[in-house]
Design a protein that fits this description.
Blueprint: H1 2-14, H2 35-54, H3 68-77, H4 80-86, H5 88-93, H6 95-99, H7 105-115
Helix pairs in contact: 2-4, 3-7
């Protein structure tokens, strides 16, 4: 769990609010999704788009942006703290809380899938 979250935080630190990407902490909900999940999806979409622009052509097919509706639905099912930890702005300010998430069962599986962009 920590390895996956660590990877997410590492990637998110590369694309933090201090880069040319803007961080919007006042996002409005899409389809009744949690605002944290909407922010997390927007963060992931920016990261994946930037990654696609930098990876070699033969790898580009492996870099896919997840379906927004499915992502938001799965994210919104997670416990509140896990939803917050999905968003770059929260995860960077609350690294210890996010690293110590204690998720089990379906919550853990969904969190791992979301963090890995699947």
């Amino acid at each position: 769990m920590r390895d996956i979250l660590g990877l997410g935080i590492l990637i998110s630190s590369i694309f933090s609010c201090n880069t040319n990407f803007s961080c919007n902490t006042n996002v409005t909900s899409k389809n009744n999704a949690s605002p944290w999940c909407v922010e997390a999806y927007n963060d992931l979409e920016k990261q994946m788009t930037a990654l696609k622009d930098t990876v070699p052509t033969e790898v580009k097919g492996d870099v896919n942006i997840p379906n927004e509706s499915n992502y938001l639905k799965k994210c919104s099912l997670l416990p509140s703290l896990a939803q917050k930890c999905m968003a770059v702005s929260f995860a960077q300010k609350n690294t210890k809380k996010c690293q110590n998430l204690d998720l089990r069962g379906e919550d853990q599986k969904n969190f791992e899938k979301l963090v890995s962009g699947k």
